[in-house]
Amino acid sequence: MHHSSPIWIRFLACLLLTILLSFSATAQEPEEKNDTAAKATVRYNREKGFEFKTRDNKFLMQIHSRLQFRFATPEDQDPVTFDDFTGEKKPAFKINRARLKVGGHAFQPWLKYYWEYELSQSNLLNYQIMVEKWDWLKFQVGQFKVEYTRERRISSGEQQMVDRSVINRPFTLDRQQGAEIYGRLKGKGLADFNYWFGVFTGTGRGNTANDDSHLMYFGRLQWNMFGRYLDFVGCDLEIHEKPAAVLAINAVTNQSPYTRFSQAGGGYLEGYEDGQPGQYRVNQANLETAFMYRGFSWQSEFHWKEIIDKLNNDQTDDLHGYYVQAGYFFHQLWRWWPKQLEFAARHAAYRPNVEASETKKGETSGAFNWFFNGHANKLTAEMSYFTYDLSVDQPTHEWRFRLQWDISL
To answer: Which CATH number belongs to the domain containing residue 316 in this structure?
Structure first.
């Protein structure tokens, strides 16, 4: 947007000036006994962008940018209410994301930092410090995506589909501010686990304080079935020669004015608007699976969410949702199929309130990905079919086509 341009231009200028001054100062320092410690090297990494690193490896800065161009018709957003299916349609052609990412380590390779800025909306998304000296015990503090759902935790630049499913909106925790401990407990054979436990303000991105005395508590236990860690990424681009799979259980509890979260921060599901401080106690859990082997990838989530209205006689609503998603590089089966081409499909369903309403929402999508240079440069074409059953007498549906080019520099 035009009004945000001066902000991010000044921001970029300050960043580049800081980098130039810091490395200029390093180069002008007097020679010490170990001269190599005062020098820095520069190289380009496809996954992390430009890297500035001192030769003693005590300091590392990686600067990475990403642009996402999208065309969508008859509209871009997922339909949320019944009226969204019948309202005015607005085809979109836009820069959907424009990100600047900076990360690395300082003083020690295990003392890491990372921040991410959304240029198109002038939002600071992530800022975090990580202490990762031991595999079994790590720590981070700041604002970051909670690892509650695999679908949301996967970067928008490493997704398998154009974007996340219809259940992301009601169930994601998105970004929160707080602290987290995590690690990998690698035993013999099948005894291989990862864990995450976090405490957050529970008020979403951009809120530095809680609304009351209740914090958000989060836990995730992940079993690496075959003794191999499977990272948060879509598509089996590595073409795993050995199977890798995870089974994860996630749970969270929070009390706040909000019933959902997004990149914008705390928000409200339909029927819960304008919450008061501490009004909603939200308990939720999900069961997650993921698998990759020889070009085939699978992931799924099954969600439950309980919303308790503390200001209205503890009125309780139960929400349910799930998605299943799979992709395959058919070149592994048919040699005539292009190596760079993957086909993926997804089905998702959402019940906004199991007890009080017969409303059901559904999504079925198929997509082709063409990888010019892995996730760093890919083109995705996606077709989706949405259904909405308000009751047995009022079903409706909608088709949508989206084309997206995602490129990282």
So the answer is: 2.40.160
Handedness of CA 19, 24, 27, 28 (dihedral sign): negative
Q: Please write the tens of the pLDDT for every residue from 3-58.
A: 444 444 445 555 554 554 454 444 444 444 455 455 789 888 877 889 999 999 99
pLDDT of residue 15: 54
Instruction: Calculate ∠ Cα 328-333-335, nearest 5°.
Output: 115
Catalogue the E-assigned strands of 240-376. Answer: 244-256, 260-262, 265-267, 280-293, 296-309, 315-328, 341-351, 360-371
Query: How many Å apart are CA 261 and CA 266, to the nearest integer?
Result: 5
Q: Residue 217: which of 135, 137, 146, 314 has the closest Cα?
A: 146
Q: Does the residue 334 lie in any domain? A: yes
Query: For the chain, which ranges sit under pLDDT 70?
Result: 1-38, 354-358, 390-393
Neighbouring residues of 48: CB distance < 8 A, sequence distance ≥ 6: 62, 64, 103
Domains contained in the chain, number: 1
Range of the domain at 294: 66-94+143-408
Q: Let me know if residue 15 belongs to a domain.
A: no
CA dist., res. 271 & res. 141, Å (int)? 34
Q: Is residue 309 part of a domain?
A: yes
